[in-house]
Specification:
Strand content: 15-25%
Strand order of the largest sheet: 8-7-9-10
Helix content: 10-25%
């Protein structure tokens, strides 16, 4: 029989419903996907120095079933190939088949290749998949790095998982009321006809029918009230999810980690003061990567949240945003001679070359709002331009290192001793690489040889130049 309906009260067990029928109730209301405002929405991140990843908390609807993860779940990644890369997929699956009836987080191991492709999960009868992330496993790797984890939550298509949207339709209250009233009228007529045909105590039966009629009308009124409330909620949800700003409103309730994961690029005006409270308490309300202040002709763009928080000796524990001018503030020599000095702070750029930039930033944001986080600076070099000593120093302005811009060293010689703090790339350069380059060349903090330093060109490539050459000064500042 093709027609089905429900739910009805069971009489002596003659109406029994299963999970499949319950799940079918939501067809056309919500589609498969991840709830955008529950937990970490299954955020996948690597472990520390291990071939493993962790899947964060979240809630999803898949294959007519709800799935909720309330804490991090660890998944092991198979050993890397000796000479070829591969791409693994982290998936959520729901298997409704009788032998399983469960949801699982799984790793689909890809094929090692010179041009690896992510494995595409194939749905089978009773079992469906959603892709949470793709992991690039480099050849001979012994750990998974953050830059090789690509989240697929929020993306559609066969290799992604969308966020759950609002209902496609609203409830027709008038139609529902007419339907309920019609069913009641039919029932009442059938009972009345049966009483007429059977005879009996008509007065008693009519009194009972009046009581039943009152009860039925109360039920109808109660249903109307509940449906009306739910309709209002569903319309509000649908309206919010169709508004592009909703995602940012939800994310504003998160911490620095969440703000470091979303690029917006909106204007914050020409005054930092309205934002200082939320910066200092670490909530960063209504601030996202790429957002910018326009002050005295300079565009100061947010490139990271709490980049230096919790590091250093002693630990730096003041919440902050890192801002970077879109263009160099001026040009300067790296050093007054082409000879390598004993420490970075002995270079001209480290002694006095940033003073003009500090004055500009303090004039824009206020002297007390330009912070001095801790980072490591080289205190000695050898004749191969390798760093042989370093120390924690507070700094008001900083030239970016290769790590901060590109996430790795390419030219600088840090292989002898890690002399600069290697805590990774500014998040904006991961999400919006176009902000690496600008209209002029600019110095990095790193040196290449005993008589040359490294700068970034207008094509976002790295080059070297003699210490005494003139390049742009584009420093970062911690504001809070």
């Amino acid at each position: 029989m093709p027609l089905s309906s429900g739910f009805y009260n069971s009489v002596n067990g003659d109406r029994v419903y299963d999970a499949e029928q319950f799940g079918a109730l939501f067809d056309g209301i919500i589609s498969d996907g991840v709830f955008p405002n529950v937990g970490d929405h299954f955020l996948v991140r690597p472990g520390t120095n291990e071939m493993a990843i962790y899947v964060g908390s979240g809630k999803a609807w898949l294959n007519r079933r709800w799935v909720e993860n309330t804490a991090d779940e660890k998944l092991s990644i198979s050993a890397a190939h000796a000479s070829l890369d591969r791409i693994d997929s982290i998936v959520l699956s729901v298997d409704n088949n009788k032998a399983v009836r469960a949801a699982r987080l799984e790793v689909l191991t890809g094929q090692a290749s010179g041009s690896p492709q992510a494995p595409l999960p194939t749905d089978t009868p009773g079992k469906k998949y959603m892709v949470l992330a793709n992991i690039r496993v480099l050849k001979a790797a012994r750990q998974i790095s953050p830059e090789h984890v690509s989240s697929r939550v929020g993306y559609g298509g066969s290799n992604g998982t969308p966020y759950i949207g609002g209902p496609a339709n609203t409830i027709d209250l008038a139609g529902l009321q007419n339907k309920l009233q019609g069913e009641f009228d039919t029932w009442f007529k059938a009972v009345r006809d049966a009483l007429t045909q059977a005879g009996g105590n008509t007065a008693t039966e009519v009194a009972n029918l009046k009581a039943s009629d009152t009860a039925q009308n109360l039920k109808i009124a109660n249903v109307e009230s509940r449906v009306g409330t739910n309709e209002s909620k569903l319309v509000n949800i649908n309206s919010a999810l169709n508004n592009a700003s909703t995602l940012f409103q939800i994310a504003s309730r998160g911490n620095a980690g969440l703000h470091n994961s979303l690029f917006r690029g909106g204007s914050l005006g020409n005054n930092v003061n309205p934002y200082l409270t939320s910066i200092r308490n670490g909530t960063f309300d209504n601030m996202f990567l790429g957002d910018y202040f326009s002050i005295n002709g300079v565009t100061w763009r947010i490139v990271a949240f709490d980049y230096f928080y919790g590091i250093g000796y002693p630990k730096y524990l003041r919440h902050h945003v890192i801002v970077l001018p879109d263009q160099p503030l001026y040009t300067s020599r790296y050093n007054d001679t082409n000879n390598i000095p004993t420490a970075f702070t002995s270079f001209e750029i480290g002694r006095t070359g940033l003073n003009r930039a500090i004055s500009t930033a303090q004039g824009a944001f206020g002297t007390g709002n330009v912070l001095q986080p801790l980072t490591k600076f080289p205190t000695s070099y050898n004749n191969l331009s390798q760093i042989t000593g370093s120390d924690w120093l507070a700094h008001t302005a900083g030239l970016m290192t290769e790590d901060m811009i590109f996430g790795r060293q390419a030219i600088s010689r840090h292989d002898f001793q890690r002399g600069d703090l290697a805590i990774g790339r500014f998040p904006i350069f991961e999400l919006a690489k176009n902000y690496i380059a600008c209209d002029s060349n600019y110095w990095t903090r790193d040196i290449a040889t005993t008589n040359s330093s490294i700068y970034v060109g207008t094509d976002a490539s790295e080059y070297t130049a003699a210490y005494t050459s003139e390049q742009g000064v584009r420093p970062y500042f911690a504001i809070g």
